Amino acid sequence: MEFIRSVLTPSDGATAPSGPNPTLRKVRSSVNLTHATLAPSQLMTSQQAVPQGPSSNIPTQFQAGSDVPMPGTSDEAQCFSTMLPQKLVRFLSLSSFNTTERDEAVNVCDSDFVRMNVLGIGSFGKVLLVKKKDSSRLFAMKIIKKSVLKERMRARIRMERNVMALHRHPFIIKLHYAFQEEDKLYFVMDYCKGGDLYYHLHPSRNSRRSTSSFSKFVIAQLALALGHLHNHGIVYRDLKPENVLFDDQGYIKLADFGLAKGGIWEPTRGTRSVCGSLHYMAPELLLMHELGDDAEYGYAVDWWSLGVLLYEIFWGLPPWYCEKHDELVTMIKTIPLKINLKLPAPTRSFMTDLLIKDPQYRLGSAADVEEVKRHAYFERIDWQRLLAKQYAPCFTPCAAGAPEECVQNFDESFTRMPVKSSGQESGMAPCSSIPPNLADRLVHFDDFDFIINEEGTDTRAA
């Protein structure tokens, strides 16, 4: 791949990125890989370099070097500090849907919501903008077809449900309701009307922000979200621009936990299943099939993906990009990282330390998020202030005065689609028309239903 260069501006260190390849979203979908083509000896090693809602009356904007202490706390930060005991979360994230739910029966179903717009469509279903009839509150509703879920996918649905239901963190998307019908599963989540990071990396939309400040703001929040998951034994494994959402203020929410895995407490050990979006997968993950049955990887793969994402924010493409699967695998495992020397030194160092091919020396492998937070790239960031959302974001994804139901930050090819009523979704056949060989997939998901009440307590839905 030809190295992409950029002319830097004196004001913020770099111009806005050139934008992602228009076909990239299609090419780099999440995959389960079954082949890796190089020998273990070709895994490169290197030495590790020396290594943490916005208040309406706080006008200070988040900037690359700002460090102005601000008073106050937020409810979300308080929720973060009163998480479930770690041993309980460790058990729950590995087992069933029986979380901290109470036996209070609350019914919720598809007909309780008005469908407004299509926000996205995937291989397993679609995401809609919906409004709850009794409160007029907006949510994103993810609808999943049971008929396409094989046994492994059922386990991933359980993990996604548990992560969103259990973990209250300012930068992790919140699950409000989960329910099911005979042929479909429903997740009702925060509506992030700022769209996703992939949308905002397009060259036609990058003029509204400074790349240097924007990248640091986004990466710092992601580091806290990943650190929270790692502290609870969860490796994320699917960090990419499509899974980084923005609220209307410009803060991020990490979404889509179908590839997350619990019980991972070490940076280089704990699991060996090969999954993820290829452009963001770490070299050790791609070597699983070559290293034998004793090979494992751990949460260090998430820090690699963070480095890839940072690179893409600056240059519009991942550092190793190719549309041919085998060639891309070879590039990730063997081709050295190339970084434009005009980038500020702390940015180059941070990017390089995250993209060390040997996970033992990668930034974050020694002390996880605390090591990442100490890097010079984040100098002068007040982490508690960021966690409490007391920075004014460096860009606002929604125009001033935009209506609550605004969908301006979503792909028009989706939002212009007609929204069909309940039970008539395009591509979702009624139970009576599902082929007999798929009928056994229409299982009832025990303890799937979920509702969070106004006080934030998890409650079982009947």
From TrEMBL:
Segments forming domain AGC-kinase C-terminal: 379-460
Keywords per UniProt: ATP-binding, Kinase, Nucleotide-binding, Phosphoprotein, Serine/threonine-protein kinase, Transferase
Family annotation (InterPro entries): AGC-kinase_C, Kinase-like_dom_sf, Prot_kinase_dom, Protein_kinase_ATP_BS, Ser/Thr_kinase_AS, STKc_AGC
The Protein kinase domain, residue ranges: 113-378
GO molecular function: ATP binding; protein serine/threonine kinase activity
Phosphoprotein is among the record's keywords: yes
Binding-site positions, ATP: K150
Domain of life per record: Eukaryota
Pfam families found in the cross-reference section: Pkinase
Region span, Disordered: 1-26
Family, as annotated: Belongs to the protein kinase superfamily.
Entry protein name: Protein kinase domain-containing protein
Species in which this protein is naturally found: Fibrocapsa japonica
Upper classification of the organism: Eukaryota, Sar, Stramenopiles, Ochrophyta, Raphidophyceae
